[in-house]
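Module 6 notes. Inverse folding takes a fixed backbone as the condition and produces residue identities as the prediction. Think of it as a translation problem where the source language is geometry and the target language is the twenty amino acids. Below is one complete input and output pair. Work through it position by position during the lab.
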């Protein structure tokens, strides 16, 4: 039995490497010179993002910040503005923190071993393994969604990939499959196979180099694997943005705290538990603070689905007649024509494009 398993594992690695060398034609700009900075930047940008969406961002970042030093020196707002539209803004915060930590602690060069990379804030197991193997060819197996899928299907594994036990098992299995001296090619191969052949919804088993020994193909379970233990609940949120306008200027503030859209700007926000009437909005404590007589005027409304939140957003115009001193001290007034110089979440950018700069 053990021998059969070993043969299955050997076949997996050998076929994968053969496919990579002879058939895999996927290539990306950050793979050309194996520079750790470019590999790291691409990994952070591509997390939870489709390549087609992330690639233009990578190219813009590399053009503007061709070195880690230039990124570390950049102003936060400038970097957030370049990131605008990509979502998951804590990744942008981590990007800056890591760049500055590498400059401060490592003289501007990434550590050349897994533990040194892993010790940096914003670099987890996956990113550390990716840099260690792609830049330095060190024997560390990457395990991302593509890898979970290929392994679960080929070996017919029903262990939940998001359970503690499952994560450990898949990591150990991936490491045991890593060929000596070819970790970069192997990691690239399995990720590319998952992205192009063994895809989530309709895997192309006929074109797959592993199909001869794939358990899921044989047992007809490709659509059932991999298994996840929990479905993420989607929370509904209701944002009411008030565009406080006074002397041709709008009041804006930078978002803080651990919530979504950290470090991006927004207008005066009243978050309500549901999609309330204007009358109910005017009864909130936040509205009362503004001491406005006139009802706000609805300009636009939209919805945005994030990974586990559905944000329903409404934009209201308020010709602000009150004392500017009543507003939170961390906000500021901006002339309408320079609003587009600030970094905003995608929902607000869409609103500005449709209703302010149309
Ligand atoms: S044979 Fe099909 S299910 Fe198995 S690894 Fe290949 S593409 Fe995935």
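Target side of the pair, the amino acids:
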């Amino acid at each position: 039995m053990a021998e059969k398993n070993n043969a299955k594992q050997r076949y997996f690695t050998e076929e994968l490497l053969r496919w990579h060398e002879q058939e895999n034609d996927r290539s990306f700009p950050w793979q050309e010179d194996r520079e750790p900075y470019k590999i790291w930047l691409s990994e952070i940008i591509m997390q939870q993002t489709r390549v087609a969406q992330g690639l233009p961002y990578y190219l813009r970042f590399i053009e503007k910040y061709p070195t880690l030093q230039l990124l570390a020196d950049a102003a936060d707002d400038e970097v957030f503005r370049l990131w605008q539209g990509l979502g998951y803004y804590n990744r942008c915060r981590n990007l800056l923190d890591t760049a500055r930590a590498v400059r401060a602690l490592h003289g501007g060069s990434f550590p050349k071993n897994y533990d040194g990379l892993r010790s940096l804030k914003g670099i987890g197991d996956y990113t550390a393994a990716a840099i260690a193997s792609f830049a330095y060819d060190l024997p560390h197996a990457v395990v991302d969604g593509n890898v979970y899928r290929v392994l679960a299907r080929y070996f017919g594994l029903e262990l939940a990939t998001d359970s503690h036990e499952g994560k450990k098992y898949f990591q150990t299995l991936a490491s045991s499959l890593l060929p000596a001296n070819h970790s970069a090619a192997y990691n690239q191969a399995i990720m590319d196979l998952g992205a192009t052949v063994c895809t989530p919804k309709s895997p192309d088993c006929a074109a797959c180099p592993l199909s001869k020994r794939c358990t899921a193909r044989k047992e007809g379970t490709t659509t059932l694997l991999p298994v996840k233990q929990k479905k993420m609940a989607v929370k509904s949120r209701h944002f009411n943005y008030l565009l406080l306008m006074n002397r041709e200027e709008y009041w804006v503030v930078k978002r803080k705290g651990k919530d979504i859209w950290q470090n991006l700007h927004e207008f005066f926000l009243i978050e309500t538990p549901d999609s309330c009437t204007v009358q109910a909005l005017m009864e909130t404590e936040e509205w009362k603070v503004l001491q406005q007589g006139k009802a706000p005027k609805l300009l636009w409304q939209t919805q945005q689905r994030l990974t586990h939140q559905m944000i329903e957003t409404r934009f209201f115009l308020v010709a602000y007649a009150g004392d500017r001193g009543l507003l939170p001290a961390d906000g500021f007034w901006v002339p309408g024509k320079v609003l587009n110089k600030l970094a905003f979440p995608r929902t607000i950018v869409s609103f500005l494009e449709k209703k302010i700069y149309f």
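Reference fact for the lab report: The longest strand covers residues 235-246.
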